[in-house]
Amino acid sequence: MTKTFYVMRHGETLFNTQKRVQGACDSPLTEKGIEQAQEVAEYFKQKNFHFEAVYSSTQERATDTAKIVAQTDCITQLKGLKEMNFGIFEAQAEMLLPKHRPGSNSFEDLLVPYGGEDIVKVGERVHKTLVDTMAQHEGECLFVSHGAAMWGLVQLLNIQFPPGVRFSNCAIMKWELGGDALSLIELILPSEDFKVYPFKKEDNR
Q: How many structural domains are present in the chain?
C-alpha cells in the first residue's frame, strides 16, 4: 500500500532575517513567518486536505509553524525532525560557515570537526523518523521540519533537484511511501505563488 505525506520547512524566523546560523539553536517566527504559515494553512484548506496527524520537530519555530498550518495545538513533536547541528557556528553569521567542497551542494561532513553533524547522517535520522511514523498511519500526515534536515534527506536519497531550486521558508515536499521506499512526488514553493515542481522516478535515484 502506498502512503502519501507532506514535509515542510518552518516559516521565516528572526535569525533568518539576521542571516545567522540556525540549527540546533532557535529563534521565533517573524510576523512574515506567521503570515507564510497562514498562507499555507489556506492553501491546504482550499485543496481540502485533512491530515490524519500533524508532527513537528521539537524546535519552537517548527512547532509554531505546525500549529498555524494545521490550525490546532494538537501537534506531536519528534526529535528526529530536528534541524542539523552546526556546532560552533550556531547563532553566528552565516558568512563564517566553511565553504562547500568543489562540486558539492551541501556541507557533507565538513561541520563534524566543529561539533556539528554530517548532513547525510541527518538525512538518515529524518528518513527513519518519517518511515517509522508513517507505519502507524493510513491517511495523509504533515511533518514540519527544517531546511538542512530536508536537504539531508534529499542528499541521502540522491534526488536530483532543478538548478537553483532550494527550500524557501514554508517549502512543501509531497512524498509517497511504498514499503520502506520514499519517492519525492512534488516540491511546492509558497515563495513562488505555490509553484509546483514535479519529480519523476528517474529523479529519485
A: 1
* Residue numbers of the domain that contains 10: 2-203
Which own/partner pairs from 36-39 qualify as long-range (CB within 8 Å, at least 24 positions apart)? 36/11, 36/12, 36/169, 36/170, 36/190, 37/10, 37/11, 37/64, 37/65, 37/68, 37/69, 37/170, 38/68, 39/170, 39/190
CATH number reported for the structural domain that contains residue 161 in this entry: 3.40.50.1240
Query: Of how many residues is the chain composed?
Result: 205
Strand pairing category for 172-178 and 181-189: antiparallel
Q: Which grid coordinates belong to 25?
A: 539553536
- CA separation for the pair 71, 63 (Å, rounded): 12
* Interatomic CA distance for residues 51 and 142, integer angstroms: 6
| pTM exceeds cut of 0.70 | yes
- Reported as a single tens digit per residue, the pLDDT across 31-41 is 999 999 999 99
Give the contacts of 139 (CB within 8 A, at least 6 positions apart).
Answer: 50, 51, 52
pLDDT tier at 203 (50, 70, 90 boundaries)?
Answer: low
Grouping H, G, I as helix, E, B as strand and the rest as coil, residue 186 is: strand
- What local confidence, expressed as pLDDT, does residue 163 receive? 87
For 152-171, the pLDDT digits (tens) are 999 999 999 988 899 999 99
